[in-house]
């Protein structure tokens, strides 16, 4: 019981539920399984539910729990002692959970008779609360536990890599590593209003499964992140994944052989996931301009011999990906996206103008997020991240002036680089002064660039 005292009762029961996940999931799933929950008679206004474990073998259960923790899972597994009782409150209704077990002799004949242990919980509540408990409370426990399971699950970053199978055929396959990116919306350098807008959008989407079902649309949402290098597009993807507790599938299109392979890879992605294609403008032959260039090349090809043409084609087939724009559009709109679970598709680009409008139209990429140079609000987040420095003093004011009045453009990546402590004991002021110098240099360089461009004209 002692560990449970670390939490308030509400939290305690949820933690405890985690341990009994398997059993509760089964209890709630269908009417038939609910028959495992037996109502006992009311006694003096008290009602009891007896809930049996599905697994009678407590030792295998214990093994499973140990396995969970040994895999590096961060989930806290607490258990209730036998005959222990804990209370919980739901919508003003108080309930008592009690862990019980009893032993029965095995019915099969044996020289070495075994006793079987059956474990169960007693859920006690007042008889007047029977409706709310059976209709809502058990469902609430299940949902909260499911959320907790997702939260505690070790998340993964999947990457597609080419690999050779036994027949020497090259195939792109997902491999994964543990996803432990520390970025969150708190550490993301961005204006607060914009952050809140993205968080609200994600939350709304994540809670809209029933809505998408009702309107007959696949439960997916597309984000296009655009902005110069170093403005935090990849960092935002990590923050989104941490916010929604999602796996991330980082899809490198150039290693995908063709549309069929693309489809296979997508079907293999898990339900609650973010699928990212970074630098979509560089990924493939997907842009309008490049398509035009290809047509011109094809015109030139009319002048070469059929053998040369064939050789060129084979060479191209062996080196390049044949994923097409329509293949990619099918990926965004296609039926695969309805294969259960919420899907977020993110494209990042440095140059929106290079993209084919069909690829980024609303409905495909529902939300366009512009990541830009560091403003003062974003700087304050970085100053806190890097130096634990809060707004104070002249140095902050000078930086504010340079960013807001002088409008000096510097990416958050660059600002961070200047704020980074070069030695363990470097003073905050030194880092801030270094940033001021860098900003002034940036201003000079920008001025020179403009002058040179004007000279060229
Ligand atoms: N908005 C930001 N908030 C916090 N850190 C940032 C931000 N932007 C950049 N950084 C820092 O700069 C590094 C590079 O940023 P990131 O890779 O996210 O930029 P990007 O826009 O994806 O760049 P690219 O277009 O080159 O892929 C990150 O590791 C992060 O530390």
TrEMBL record:
InterPro entries for the chain: AAA+_ATPase, AAA_N_dom, At3g28540-like_C, ATPase_AAA_core, ATPase_AAA_CS, Mitochondrial_chaperone_BCS1, P-loop_NTPase
* Protein keywords: ATP-binding, Coiled coil, Hydrolase, Magnesium, Nucleotide-binding
Q: Does the keyword Cell inner membrane apply?
A: no
Q: Where is this region: Disordered?
A: 289-318
Q: In what residue span(s) does the AAA+ ATPase domain sit? A: 219-375
Q: Which reaction does it catalyse?
A: ATP + H2O = ADP + phosphate + H(+)
Stretches of the chain forming a coiled coil according to its record: 429-456
Q: Which cofactor does it need?
A: Mg(2+)
The signal peptide, as residue positions, is none
- Which regions are flagged for Acidic residues bias? 296-305
The UniProt entry, under PANTHER family, shows: BCS1 AAA-TYPE ATPASE
Q: Which family does it belong to?
A: Belongs to the AAA ATPase family. BCS1 subfamily.
Instruction: Write down what this protein is called.
Output: AAA+ ATPase domain-containing protein
Supply the source organism's classification: Eukaryota, Viridiplantae, Streptophyta, Embryophyta, Tracheophyta
């Amino acid at each position: 019981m002692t560990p449970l005292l670390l939490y308030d009762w509400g939290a305690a029961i949820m933690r405890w539920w985690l341990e009994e996940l398997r059993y509760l999931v089964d209890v709630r799933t269908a009417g038939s399984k609910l028959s495992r929950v037996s109502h006992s008679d009311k006694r003096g206004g008290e009602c009891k539910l007896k809930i049996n474990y599905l697994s009678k073998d407590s030792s295998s259960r214990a093994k499973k729990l140990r396995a969970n923790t040994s895999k590096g899972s961060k989930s806290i597994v607490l258990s209730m002692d036998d005959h222990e009782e804990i209370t919980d409150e739901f919508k003003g209704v108080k309930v008592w959970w009690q862990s019980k077990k009893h032993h029965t002799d095995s019915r099969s004949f044996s020289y070495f008779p075994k006793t079987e242990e059956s474990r169960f919980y007693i859920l006690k509540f007042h008889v007047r609360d029977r409706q709310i408990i059976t209709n809502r409370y058990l469902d609430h426990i299940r949902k909260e536990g499911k959320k907790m399971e997702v939260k505690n699950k070790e998340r993964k970053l999947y990457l597609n890599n080419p690999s050779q199978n036994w027949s020497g055929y090259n195939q792109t396959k997902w491999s994964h590593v543990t996803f432990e990116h520390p970025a969150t919306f708190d550490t993301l350098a961005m204006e607060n209003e914009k952050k809140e807008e993205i968080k609200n959008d994600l939350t709304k989407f994540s809670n809209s499964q029933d809505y998408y079902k009702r309107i007959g649309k696949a439960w997916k949402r597309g984000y296009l992140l655009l902005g110069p290098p170093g403005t935090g597009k990849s960092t935002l993807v990590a923050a989104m994944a941490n916010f929604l507790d999602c796996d991330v599938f980082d899809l490198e299109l150039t290693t995908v052989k063709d549309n069929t392979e693309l489809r296979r890879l997508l079907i293999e992605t898990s339900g609650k996931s973010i699928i990212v294609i970074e630098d979509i403008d560089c990924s493939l032959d997907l842009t309008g301009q490049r398509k035009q260039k290809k047509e011109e090349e094809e015109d030139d090809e009319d002048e070469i011999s059929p053998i040369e043409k064939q050789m060129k084609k084979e060479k191209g087939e062996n080196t390049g990906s044949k994923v097409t724009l329509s293949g990619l559009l099918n990926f965004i709109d296609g039926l695969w996206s309805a294969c259960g679970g919420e899907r977020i598709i993110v494209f990042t680009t440095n140059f929106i103008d290079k993209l084919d409008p069909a690829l980024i139209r609303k409905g495909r990429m529902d939300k366009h997020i512009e990541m830009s140079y560091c403003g003062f609000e974003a700087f304050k987040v970085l100053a806190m991240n890097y130096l634990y420095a809060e707004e104070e003093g002249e140095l902050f004011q000078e930086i504010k002036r340079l960013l807001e009045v002088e409008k000096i453009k510097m990416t958050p990546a660059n600002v961070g680089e200047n704020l980074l402590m070069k030695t363990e004991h470097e003073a905050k002021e030194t880092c801030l002064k270094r940033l001021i110098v860098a900003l002034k240099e940036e201003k000079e360089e920008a001025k020179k660039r403009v002058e040179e461009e004007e000279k060229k004209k």
